[in-house]
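Sequence in, structure out. Go.
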Amino acid sequence: MLRFIVRRVLIGVGILILSSLLMYLMVDLAMDPLEDIRMRPDSNATKELLMQQRIELLHLDQPVISRYFMWLGNFVTGDMGTAWTTNREVVDILAGAMVSTMQLVTASTVLAIILGIGVGIVSALRQYSSFDYLITFVSFLMFSLPSFWVAVLLKQWAAIGYNDFLRDPVIAIPVMIGIAAVFGLVWALALGGAPQRRLINGAAAGAVTLAVLLYIQLTDWWTTPNIGPVLLTITSLGIALGVTTLSTGLKNRRSLLTALTVAVLGVALYIPMQWVFYYLTPMMNWALVLGLGVLAGVVGGVVGALYRGPDWRQSVRTGALTAVPVAALIFIDQVMQVWGPYTNANAIGGRPIPTIGDTTPNLGGNFWVVTLDQYTHLILPTVSLMLISFASYTRYARGSMLEVMSQDYIRTARAKGLTERTVIMRHGFRNSLIPMATIVPIDIITLIGGAIITENIFGRPGMGQMFVRHLNASDIEPVMAYLLIVAFLAIVANIVADLIYAVLDPRIRVEA
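Output:
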């Protein structure tokens, strides 16, 4: 393993140096740092003086190879240079751009992977069913939509339309019934089974959806959104049942009791956590939030270990997987509690869903207000990227799962009498992830490079925007820093993909 990593790192360094040379030559050829001076309506003498100063500043009187090695030497020693157009350090420019991009990439990629792979696998298990045809149609439709068109529609309907809706947030009963019917139909098709079973599942899903919509309407949830004890209880129990179903199956009593205990514990801690968050607010930051999330996972694992039994490790896993999303719900509820002051702030003006930027200028407020502001700015670009990525992951997951489920070892597992859940989750699902090991890291790196169109439409100052802005300004230092970072991450992504391959498939050896 160590020899493989060292060998790949050395090869990667060589590729990085060679690619940086080629990129520097091409970028230098495409740029003209003197163009703005030539276009000025000054006298020729003034232009000549300004050009000479610019040439001396950027060392344009030296050969391009000499300038490349000068840049490379500075870069290796940690000096990324200074953007001559803004006189700012490239490190400072990159820091702000990478934070904005990482927020967007993390949210959109995690949601797209979870939803896309989940829906793709269900579609494969329901091959040639109505649900499979529906998902195939929706996936190809979203995959073919131009990203700029999706972004513009989201700005119009999800931002402007929703902000207008908040003036009189009332949903008519016929609309609620229609939404509930659609949800019921989708769930009936997804769960499959005999017609009677589909009817029962669809009716139950539709009834739950209608009940949730009525609860939201009657509690004026739109103007004061929150999770609260009621929704937290219902959602936590649903998470416990869902996690147990996927992790061990509901027949594993210890795992089921572990998940339900963790869910009840989370609901019981809802009120005490309000006091904890109140006293922690002055020192609250994301490191502390992650620490609390890890603590929640540990507590869930401890609950599973206390149930003991021969399969206690499965209970530990189920408890931890249940505790983290329940804790996340409590955190989200705390963020949503500042919705009223946030919406009524002068900087927001009663229109909480923004269409541009990554923060609201002159907003102020504590950690919870700032976090809510970041969330609202992330909603539209995240959904825009997620819809397209979701379509890709759905198709990849479906194709991979169909290939795996036709293998001989799947038929052997069924012949041995294993439950369908065990066959799908333990033998089918894990092996279906092997092709995704290549797609996901590369896709993440592509997004880190900057969703240029999405960032431009939503005005997010991310990596893609930084690259385009300085490329147009013929500012080579930030452009080269961007290109080199993206190339480095691409090399790392390929190494990580090979290692994930070895973890998912024991037949693969990295030493080979």
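Check: Strands lie at 82-83, 88-89. The mean pLDDT is 88.
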